[in-house]
Amino acid sequence: MRGVAVAQRLENFIGGEWVGASGGETFESIVPATGETLASFPRSGAADVDRAVAAAKEAFESWRLVPAPRRGEIVFRLGELLREHKEELTDLMTREMGKVRAEAGGDVQEAIDMSYYMAGEGRRLFGQTTPSELPDKFMMSVRMPIGVVGAITPWNFPIAIPSWKLCPALVCGNTVVLKPAEDTPFLAERFVELLAEAGVPAGVVNVVHGYGEEAGDALVRHPDVPVITFTGSRETGVAVTKAAADELKHVHLELGGKNAIIVMDDADLDLAVDGIVWSAFGTTGQRCTAASRVIVHQSVYGELSSKLVARAEQLRLGPGWEADTDVGPLINRAALEKVASYTDIGKGEGAKLLTGGEAVSGDGFFYRPTVFGDVEAGMRIAQEEIFGPTTALIPVTSFEEAVAAANSVEYGLSSSIFTRDVNTAFRAMRDLQAGITYINAGTTGAEVHLPFGGTKDTGNGHREAGQAALDVFTEWKSIYVDYSGRLQRAQIDNQ
Ligand code: NAD
């Protein structure tokens, strides 16, 4: 079992060994607050993926036979190690990904929670037993591991999302090849180091760094990888689905969002503003559940927008590791340019720029918290995922109009309503087309023991976290045991 010595970092982890890319090429991880290089990593290709998959395939034959409670104990130990290393990982995350300290700690905490939760699954993984229609016959269903899981993750939750995928995959008895985001390879590497330290045997978890179109695509197409679990953009999700189609792989997708907060005329407006600021500008708007739309009843629109603008203008931008920073940088220059382009699009569409709308000069990728007013539900800034600190205020005159606006987008991840009317709240829970609905809270704040994911183009019907995650990483087997000693024909001999 490998230790966590610094000198051994910055490589692929294959079959329990730390190795460079076979082509010898590297890429760099950049600190988004300063533009400095943090470390360099192997730029892997198909040959490296082949090696990792071969190691995972071989390890599967013994890992699947390790009793699930024992697999759970290893994942529990991962939770303990994450807890011990929480400060260090939090600090690294403020540098490599850029989120502020409190949120970086929350990201690590989510992985701790997931480790503990999925460790417990090792002693459950419940199936069903049911009576047979025939005498002296027993029936049950059990969850079976599938094989090598290819896990492809984004940069915005660099510890939490790998844990959402790897903890259930491992407890269920699969082995894994992880291709982490190229913007946050260091954090993925630390996560895998801790898994190895927790006692995961060689080959059970492998990490292959590199670009999506190279290492990622090779993993998706590999014939010995029957399951792909992918979190990222809608566009890449479609490409992954097509690439996996010929092999009829299981593909689990968690994609984008265009999440709305509805503020009704009876809402607690100060509470609503708290929720909007946290959901729209937390993680610099780079959450799949970020509130990039606020649908506001006309009668409170003026008061809410002036309170929101005042709060947005108080937010302090800075590096995530500084204690008084409210909003960190965007992940990279391309993200900064994308957010800026949507400011131009919004202005061009006739929306009113109420605050923000500009980058901060300097080496880091900072963009001011931006609020657009007088937005119409069909405008591009109200339809397309921006993934930055930009939110659009959409005035409406009724609950029905609010729900129609909320549901008018292609995505269906998170949703929220602020109201004091219990009837309105229950109608919203029923009518909002989303995988998640919050009442009197913003659009972010999922906990690990409920299913996480979205409807419509946010995914393909699967869910991460909670019991639902087990369905991604296992296949049902139905077992019939006939102890009658004679041939008994179902549907015939019981008539
Ligand atoms: P992305 O799609 O660009 O990249 C995600 C991962 O896919 C990266 O590891 C990347 O290297 C890899 N990739 C890229 N092209 C690939 C290809 N052709 N084949 C295989 N892999 C490929 O997304 P991103 O910019 O890293 O993340 C932001 C997106 O992720 C947003 O759309 C956001 O909403 C979404 N997201 C969704 C959830 C969710 O649970 N629904 C959570 C977080 C982020």
What's the short version?
The chain has 495 residues and is an alpha/beta fold. The protein has helices at 46-63, 68-84, 86-96, 101-121, 160-171, 185-198, 212-221, 234-245, 269-281, 298-314, 333-348, 399-406, 422-431, 469-473, and strands at 12-14, 17-19, 26-30, 37-42, 128-131, 137-145, 148-152, 175-179, 205-207, 227-231, 250-254, 259-263, 291-297, 352-355, 370-373, 390-396, 411-412, 414-418, 436-439, 455-456, 474-482. It has a seven-stranded mixed beta sheet, sandwiched between helices.
N-to-C CA distance? 60 Å
Determine the mean pLDDT.
Answer: 96
In CATH's first tier, which class of the largest domain applies? Alpha Beta
**Architecture (CATH level 2) name of the largest domain:** 3-Layer(aba) Sandwich
- Look at the helices and sheets and give the structural class: alpha/beta
Helical content stands at: 25-40%
Shape: globular
The spatial strand order of the largest sheet comes to 14-15-16-13-12-18-19
Bound molecules: nicotinamide-adenine-dinucleotide
Named CATH topology of the largest domain:
Aldehyde Dehydrogenase, Chain A, domain 1
